[in-house]
Amino acid sequence: MTRARALPLALALLCGSARAQTLTKLPMLESFRTSEVRVQWETDSDPPGTDSRLEWGPASPAQFSVAAQPAIQLAPDRFVHRAIATGLSPQTAYLYRVRSGPALSATYPLRTAPPAGVPFRVAWVADNQNQLGVPFLTVLQKLAARAPDFIGHAGDTVQDGDQLAEWQAQWFDPFAAAGNLGQTTPVLVSRGNHDWEYPTSLAYHWLPDNGGSIGNGDWYAETIGRVRFIFLDSNLPWVEQEDWLRAELASPASRDADFRIAVFHIPAYTNLWDSVGFRGDTYFREHWVPLFEQGRVDLVVNGHAHCYERGSSNGVMYTIVGGAGGILDTVPQSPPWPFIAVAQSVHHYAIMDVNGGKLRWTAYDLQDQLIDSFELAKGAGVPVFPALEGRER
């Protein structure tokens, strides 16, 4: 190669390595807490010495800032950044933005979680994944109109959890297109079997580290208001998770809550599927359901079956909210579980309002027609668990 050709090539390489960062994913709110917020975003590069940070304040995002954690590199042009703002006040409005080097996001509003006793609203969905049944954006626009304080997702957020392009098209783009819903409303997730435990899933779903983990908080619990939310990972039917669930349900945080809600993907019971033979997962019926009953779990939220279902068994209300976009499951299972009172093959979303000692649940189809509702009242009693002695591990 002549010097005349080598010089332009060297300059091109130099300019390429020094190109400005751009945001490849807008910031998303990954927590709903009274005194802190966790924000995650992505850029296409992360040159050494780059300053990536979260900026926020009650009047302007320029008031406070915190440096992001070391970036997680998923590909040559995919760098995930995470930052936590602390010292916030409950039920308070803030403005925030993120920056990585010269890349600066727009400014978005957020509101922290309310203190105990203040009403709040949750929207529930699951199984948007490949969106072959209906676009996820359509579902998000419907539930956004109900103004939830946060969104709970019971898994299968993408079809193939190891495919970067699917995360963009099936998860991040719909949340941004729905009026920046993901930028203004926190999303709490329980991973599904299509999400799996891929490095991409571990990175893009930033779960709390207060439970068990193979690297990123695969199961965890959060108290919001006077409700204890227990997010489990049905991909990992391990004794460690079962032991953690037992301890969690016996903990003061769970015992003192007005309601206990368990969220995980694969249900213990279903009366609808895409073929004959699956009536729910036997392992969860045998290992988790007894703990739900002993631990006074009030409500279980599942996905996996692409339908809406609801029924009560031994004091536990079971729901399936798998209608956020995937092709619907339409085949009745035989014999059916007799306690399941509602089973509809319909795309839908659910809204849960917690006010004082009452929990009201309403489910809607995508024409905003009510398809189901029920109300739970604060229960009484203390969880009692059998001793662990003699139990096989």
In brief:
The protein has 393 residues and is an alpha+beta fold. It contains nine helices and 24 strands.
Q: For this structure, what is the CATH homologous superfamily of the largest domain?
A: Metallo-dependent phosphatases
Helicity range of the residues? Answer: 10-25%
Termini Cα gap: 67 Å
**Biggest beta-sheet profile:** 7 strands, mixed
CATH topology of the largest domain: Purple Acid Phosphatase, chain A, domain 2
Shape designation: globular
Based on CA atoms alone, the radius of gyration comes out at: 22 Å
The overall pLDDT, averaged over residues, is 92
CATH class of the largest domain: Alpha Beta
What do these coordinates show?
The chain has 393 residues and is of the alpha+beta class. The protein folds into 2 domains: 20-111, Sandwich (Immunoglobulin-like), CATH 2.60.40; 120-377, Purple Acid Phosphatase, chain A, domain 2 (4-Layer Sandwich), CATH 3.60.21.10. 19% of the residues lie in helices and 33% in strands. A hairpin with a 6-residue loop joins strand 1 and strand 2 (36-43). The longest helix has 15 residues, at 3-17.
